[in-house]
Amino acid sequence: MESNKNLGEFEMLVLAAILRQGGDAYGVSIKQDIEARADRSPSLGALYATLARLEKKQLVRSTMGEATKERGGRAKRLYTIEPLGQRLLEQSILALRNMTDGLVSWRFGV
Amino acid sequence: MESNKNLGEFEMLVLAAILRQGGDAYGVSIKQDIEARADRSPSLGALYATLARLEKKQLVRSTMGEATKERGGRAKRLYTIEPLGQRLLEQSILALRNMTDGLVSWRFGV
DNA sequence: TAATTTATACTACAATGTAGTACATATAGG
DNA sequence: CCTATATGTACTACATTGTAGTATAAATTA
Predict the structure, then answer these.
(1) How far is the C-alpha of B15 from the C-alpha of B59, rounded, in Å?
(2) Domain B9-100 is found in CATH 1.20.1250.20
(3) With 0-12 CB in 10 A as exposed, 13-18 as middle and 19+ as buried, what is B93?
């Protein structure tokens, strides 16, 4: 009887990217990871809106990155996944696997 | 440069259920499959609304089932997946896999 | 202090998720 | 027949998520 709110499809991609990057995830790097692995190009606007919602739901947490870097521009907001976020991601991915594993006439390997 | 519209999370579950059932899928059986494998209980209203949208987008096709059966009640509307639907499902599942495979501290097997 | 670079925030609207309620149509019994 | 029961779909309304365009912020450099 776990917490059982569902994640959207893009929310899953974003949570997975944050988890992958273990502490160094921020807007641009998350976008790049999704572009490289999921073969799609969300706008930064779309991404930040989703990040804000995930944080409001307490599935991720953010902190401002160090300002003193040898580069120009505004500070990064760094994201980490919260236990609840990881749990929901696992549930959602597992549900999808249970529905799709073992399907015949599947183009990529079962 | 394939067709690249994205599927929602629930749409993926529904398409997968239809594909699994190979020609015998209808409202109630799809709902039951999702309940059994994805551990959630969508209302039939939610399911039919999604089926109607999938058909409008030509990702599935439907036909009325035979009326002459030894049972009461209205005829079933049977669903099959269209090539486009299968392709989009494959793309979406593959994207998710590419994002989540190989993650460490993953509760279920990599 | 203006230009450039890097990055986030805001806003509005489209698409998807969700369930409640109503409706349709078959069989069975009197 | 007519109505009760069983089975299943359609309609409607609203909440949540997806999406991108535009504006803003804050650092470095000249």
Answers:
(1) 8
(2) no
(3) buried
For residue A90, list chain B residues with Cβ-Cβ distance below 8 A.
Answer: 106-108
Q: Does domain A9-68+75-100 have CATH number 1.10.10.10?
A: yes
> pLDDT per residue over A1-57, tens digit each?
445 689 999 999 999 999 999 999 999 999 999 999 999 999 999 999 999 999 999
**Per-residue pLDDT tens for A41-77?**
999 999 999 999 999 999 999 999 876 667 888 999 9
Using a CB-CB cut-off of 8 Å, the residues of chain B touching A85 are none
User: What is the per-residue pLDDT for B4?
Assistant: 66
Interface of B with A (CB under 8 A): 4, 6-10, 12-13, 16-17, 19-20, 33-34, 37-40, 87, 89-96, 98-100, 103, 106-108
- Of the candidates B95, B71, B65, the one whose C-alpha atom is nearest the C-alpha of residue A96 is B95
Instruction: Assess whether pLDDT exceeds 80 at residue B36.
Output: yes
